[in-house]
Write a structure and sequence with these properties.
Number of strands: 10
Protein name: protein-glutamate O-methyltransferase
Number of helices: 10
Structural class: alpha/beta
Strand content: 15-25%
Order of helices and strands: HHHHHEHEHEHEEHEEHEEE
Strand order of the largest sheet: 6-2-1-7-8-10-9
CATH class of the largest domain: Alpha Beta
Pfam families: CheR, CheR_N
EC number: 2.1.1.80
Keywords: Methyltransferase, S-adenosyl-L-methionine, Transferase
CATH topology of the largest domain: Rossmann fold
InterPro entries: Bact_Chemotaxis_MeTrfase, CheR_C, CheR_MeTrfase, CheR_N, CheR_N_sf, SAM-dependent_MTases_sf
Length: 284
């Protein structure tokens, strides 16, 4: 666990709260932005009727079930299918054809993709749908594996189930909804063919022991999605994450970031922006 102990960065009490969370759940959030931590922990303080970090720390020490609630509120993510539809349109029309055309020139074409911080699975399934749709429309023979990871086990359980309410499909085209979902009661379920493409697993982007998901064995990704993850971490921790992303990509891989994210520090020189309109970068 890497703890930032700078006094101007994190208070003693907050440091101890996050240390206890790490000991209980093995989740390291000490690199998260302070404003984010204060907002989320304040919500739990309100629920537990504690007035400050010291009182909440004492509450944690005497109520082990609170760790579950704290984890939930610090790792909660909001997602839906084809979030930022314009970005997915660019991927569909430009990036995916480019990657696949290069892959088809090799002896054993296999497409490898990582959705880092996949939340409840909508992003990973959206990627799988785009690839499957392109392959079928163009009558292409190509193997595709998508590795989707998150730190939150509850989110991963929902992702593996692959069932969503209609709100999750608000940016999904009608043709896609009809071809790739089946409606069961009030929920929409991903078809089995797409489920088989995706490997969901737990992965901590700040864990120094691994640079890529264990299931992927060696990384070598053609495309990595890491959207709306970096915004929750300070610059020091962003550098750790960028190191993993860069290391796990192949020499011509693409990186997709969130709308307010961009490579920082030394990694500004290790990625080249692919388009002025989107946060899509190519490994240099």
């Amino acid at each position: 666990m890497q703890i930032n102990t700078k006094k101007e960065s994190i208070s003693k009490e907050l440091h101890e709260i996050l240390s206890l969370l790490y000991l209980s759940k093995k989740i390291d959030l000490c690199g998260s932005e302070l404003d984010f931590l204060h907002r989320r922990i304040s919500r739990r303080m309100s629920v537990t009727n504690t007035n400050n970090h010291q009182e909440y720390l004492e509450y944690l020490q005497h109520n082990s079930e609170e760790f579950e609630a704290l984890q939930d509120i610090l790792t909660i993510n909001v997602s839906h299918f084809f979030r930022n539809a314009f970005t997915f349109e660019y991927l569909d029309k430009i990036i995916i054809p480019k990657i696949i055309n290069e892959k088809l020139k090799t002896a054993n074409p296999t497409l490898r993709i990582w959705s880092a911080g996949c939340s409840t699975g909508e992003e990973a399934y959206s990627i799988g749908i785009l690839i499957d749709n392109y392959i079928r429309k163009n009558n292409i023979k190509l193997n595709a594996s998508i590795f989707a990871t998150d730190i939150d086990q509850k989110s991963l359980l929902k992702a593996k189930k692959g069932e969503y309410l209609i709100d999750s499909l608000k940016e999904t085209k009608l043709e896609i909804a009809q071809n790739y979902f089946s409606k069961v009661d009030e929920k929409y379920s991903i078809i089995p063919r797409i489920k088989k493409m995706i490997h969901f697993s737990n992965f901590d982007l700040l864990n120094n022991q691994q640079y890529a998901p264990e299931e992927s064995i060696y990384g070598d990704f053609d495309l990595i999605f890491c959207r709306n993850v970096l915004i929750y971490f300070n610059k020091e921790y962003q550098e750790i994450i960028f190191n993993k992303l860069h290391r796990s990509m192949n020499s011509s891989g693409f990186l997709i970031l969130g709308e307010v994210e961009e490579p920082s520090g030394e990694y500004e020189k290790r990625f080249q922006k692919e388009s002025t309109l989107f946060k899509i970068y190519k490994k240099i």
